[in-house]
């Protein structure tokens, strides 16, 4: 409990681990033990190579998987189930091809019992900010990759949870679209300061977006380090070239590189 | 169509030159595309059929074949016209049987699919038997059905339903399974319960598969109707074929077969139309990935 700050943190992850029973009877440890804290209104990222257990951690915080050790506190309490409490946006946009963009983004509202008319009215008000105005009647298959991702984000925003988990939302986009989407996400976040926990394997993205970055490494994965990103906000694209930015990036890259080097050495022999 | 004169008389559209200039080529281009589509998709099968009919006609004439062995296409069409009332009356009986049997197959197929998808235990217990049920030659059951239900419409309807529910059930089960697991997880995190997840994600995901099953079932339903009538009936196109067979009325038999095929094609087309109307997103996505 000592780790919890005076004001209750939005999210506390305490010694959370996950062990799966493998097919051959041997247990597979996906996550060895993760500790992290996210304050209300904070933008926190987790970086790590694939296979470090960050998606397992995400599923645990979203309530989809139960941890085999440790606990997750939301607003200082341990709920029976985290399902329905946390906004969740996985890497795939998961827009339903049979619904228009408008009916896709209102999914969260409708699931929580808001009438279709009210949900649509709420969504209409946000379409401009999410760059979807004029596209609300289209099928998702007629949208560009960036638009689909923004629609998925709007769906997550409209669901109205105070804590949102974003799992590599820009991972599938090309480099240029990705950068403009990062800038745009900061603008949107700045406006209503929801709490965001963001997963990425892109160190630059993590530094640019976050207040704090956790580094996860290893198999089984665990949190290796935590770095405060004390760059001023609002941040603009030009920040990428500043010496402070480069230094922070280097600080994060070092443990990641060492870990992936160790992994490669273990395989190469 | 109305755009074509405008294009030929640009002076008439002189009041709004930009709009007048921009619109007609687009419309004309579309008309051209439609024409090309018809030329590419409708003309070849039509010409092929005409060629086959011509060769048939010529062959029968040259070989001087008996009409009772192989009638010429012209003889079949004139026989069709002669017995048109007979064909219509019996077609009406068969259409009713197919309509009821097919609807029953949809209810049975979709119902089973939902039941089997609702629990792993139900699927494990019933799926093998669902497959086994198709190994039973269903037309062979028809006589037993006649013993149970008599010579009315019921045995035919049951045979039709039994032969055509299987592709509907199996396709729908596959469709429900095709739902993206991540989408179901997303719905869970939104607090959606099991039935909400089913209605919101699994059922819509299954619809394109269901329609594939419905198309296969449409063809099977016609076969089922003929078999059902062969076992015991006093009306219907299958019954008519048997009667005409006894009279060695070969041209009339061919005419009846054509009507049966037309019923099958109409049912298939109806399913296709329903698919277009109910799943516009599916065709939009396919068109998008084609181009």
Q: What gross morphology of chain A would you assign?
A: globular
Strand content of chain B: under 5%
Q: Which range does the strand content of chain A fall in?
A: 15-25%
* Rounded average pLDDT of chain B: 86
List the strand order in the largest sheet of chain A: 4-1-2-9-8-3-7-6-5
Number of helices of chain B: 13
In terms of per-residue confidence, which ranges of chain A show pLDDT below 50 for 5 or more consecutive residues?
none
The biggest beta sheet of chain A is recorded as: 9 strands, mixed
Please describe the biggest sheet of chain B, giving its number of strands, its sense, and whether it closes into a barrel: none
Tell me the layout of helices and strands:
The complex is a heterodimer of chains A (about 270) and B (about 290).
Chain A: E1 11-21, E2 27-38, E3 43-47, H1 54-62, E4 69-74, E5 87-89, H2 101-105, H3 107-111, H4 116-126, H5 145-158, E6 163-167, H6 175-192, E7 195-200, H7 203-209, E8 212-217, E9 221-228, H8 243-268
Parallel strand pairs in A: 2-9, 3-7, 3-8, 5-6, 6-7
Antiparallel strand pairs in A: 1-2, 1-4, 8-9
Chain B: H1 3-8, H2 17-41, H3 43-63, H4 73-82, H5 84-118, H6 120-135, H7 138-149, H8 154-177, H9 181-189, H10 194-231, H11 237-246, H12 250-278, H13 280-290
How would you characterize this protein structure?
The complex is a heterodimer of chains A (269) and B (291). In chain A, strands 4-1-2-9-8-3-7-6-5 form a 9-stranded mixed β-sheet, sandwiched between helices. The mean pLDDT of chain A is 89. Chain A is built from 8 helices and 9 strands. Chain A is globular. Chain A has 269 residues and is of the alpha/beta class. In chain A, α7 packs antiparallel against α8 (243-268). Chain B starts with a helix and ends with a helix. In chain B, 32% of the residues are buried. Chain B has helices at residues 3-8, 17-41, 43-63, 73-82, 84-118, 120-135, 138-149, 154-177, 181-189, 194-231, 237-246, 250-278, 280-290. In chain B, 85% of the residues lie in helices and 0% in strands. The longest helix of chain B has 38 residues, at 194-231. Chain B contains 13 helices and no strands. Chain B is mostly helical and 291 residues long. In chain B, α7 packs across α8 (154-177). The A-B interface holds A 59, 62-64, 83-84, 86-88, 90, 92, 94, 96-99, 107-108, 111-112, 139, 141-142, 159 and B 180, 182-183, 185-192, 196, 200-201, 204, 207, 279, 281-282, 284-285, 288-289.
